[in-house]
Design a protein that fits this description.
The protein is α/β, with parallel strands linked by helices and 338 residues long. The protein contains 16 helices and twelve strands. The chain has three domains: 120 residues, NadA-like (Rossmann fold, 3-Layer(aba) Sandwich); 101 residues, Rossmann fold (3-Layer(aba) Sandwich), CATH 3.40.50.10800; 76 residues, Rossmann fold, CATH 3.40.50. The structure holds 1,3-dihydroxyacetonephosphate and iron/sulfur cluster. The site of 1,3-dihydroxyacetonephosphate has 10 residues, from loops.
Length: 338
């Protein structure tokens, strides 16, 4: 598996743009081409539930952050094309350093990860030398090197409960998830003040109005949402937790307070049920993650064809960051989380 020795068109602009800008024949069947590249290069496409539906449909594996990291750790492919955001692709590289990890767009970042710069966090930690540091996986590789145990929204409560009660805990970077964890575990956490721009935007007034219009609809919410939304939710869970809930619950209407990309899988799995995206405070499409949506089929095809942009991390960062992710995967496996 290697790209040709021909110069890659558009490569000189990669650093500035974040992706290869190369004209593609508009008649090209991108889905068929991506399938062909997978076979040719022994590659897999991993996609987060927040990706556009076409990308989800062409992926070998679609999942939430925890499932994607588990899949990245076990895949036998030579190349991983990661359709998600930067920290997720970094996690895949940390878990499979011998594999080539490529992404459609390097600028697909995350407001939460950006809210916690590693040098500032390092200073912050000086105040809590005896604390266990738990970081939501939505953070940079540099932050993971300062972390004892990572977590995702699927396993965060289990991770917190696994820490001896006498130990103090620093939790970064999401303050909403942190507050939710304090509530469900009864532990008090030193929380970093970060938020996700998508999950903090839901309007409690508009959700309440929707509940009046759809009195039988259940409100389901991701724990990155703010406390007033979580307080009135009928069910709170990670992306995969929400997807499982709508399949097992007898209700037929759901108001969904998370990134709207998950509605695609909900509709596929439950064609007879109605899913209403929870409305944001204004009229923008703010319940779509602008970073996730930077990825397109065209960029996915190009990154697989030219094996660029590639995620590269220094060996010492991989080694240090890996311990925190391995610990998370061990605890998840011990409680049977898949
Ligand atoms: P999960 O995939 O853990 O549900 O997290 C949601 C999210 O915001 C990912 O960026
Ligand atoms: Fe980050 Fe929020 Fe987008 Fe998830 S939805 S990638 S937490 S900005």
């Amino acid at each position: 598996m290697t790209h040709s020795s021909q110069p890659i068109p558009g490569l000189s602009q990669l650093a500035e743009k974040g992706y290869l800008e190369i004209d593609i024949d508009p008649t090209l069947d991108l889905e068929a081409e991506i399938q062909r590249l997978k076979r040719e290069k022994n590659a897999v496409v991993l996609a987060h539930y927040y990706q556009e539906s076409e990308i989800q449909d062409v992926a070998d594996f679609v999942g939430d952050s925890l499932q994607l990291s588990q899949e990245a750790a076990r895949t036998k492919a030579d190349m991983i094309a990661f359709a998600g955001v930067h920290f997720m692709a970094e996690t895949a590289k940390i878990l499979s350093p011998e594999k080539k990890v490529v992404v459609p767009d390097l600028k697909a970042g995350c407001s939460l990860a950006d809210s916690c710069p590693a040098p500032v966090f390092s200073k912050f930690l000086e105040k809590y030398p005896d604390h266990v540091v738990v970081s939501y996986v939505n953070c940079t590789a540099a932050l993971k090197t300062m972390t004892d145990i990572c977590c995702t929204s699927s396993n965060a409560a289990h991770i917190i409960r696994s820490i001896p009660p006498e130990k103090g805990i620093v939790f970064a970077p999401d303050k909403n998830l942190g507050a939710y964890l304090e509530k469900v575990t009864g532990r008090s956490l030193v929380k970093w003040d970060g938020v996700c721009i998508v999950h903090e935007i839901f309007s409690i007034e508009k959700i309440t109005a929707l509940k009046v219009r759809y009195p039988d609809a259940k409100l389901i919410a991701h724990p990155e949402c703010e406390e007033p939304v979580l307080r009135i939710a009928d069910f709170i869970g990670s992306t995969s937790g929400l997807l499982q809930f709508v399949q097992r619950d007898p209700a037929t209407e759901f108001i969904v307070a998370t990134e709207s990309g998950i509605l695609h899988q909900m509709q596929l799995k439950c064609p007879g049920k109605t899913f209403i995206p929870a409305p944001p405070e204004n009229t923008c499409a703010c319940n779509e993650c602008p970073f996730m949506k930077l990825n397109t089929m065209e960029k996915l095809y190009l990154c697989m064809k030219y094996e660029q942009p590639e995620i590269l991390l220094p060996a010492d960062v991989i080694a240090k960051a890996r311990a925190s992710i391995d610990r998370m995967l061990e605890i998840s496996a011990a409680v049977g989380l898949k």
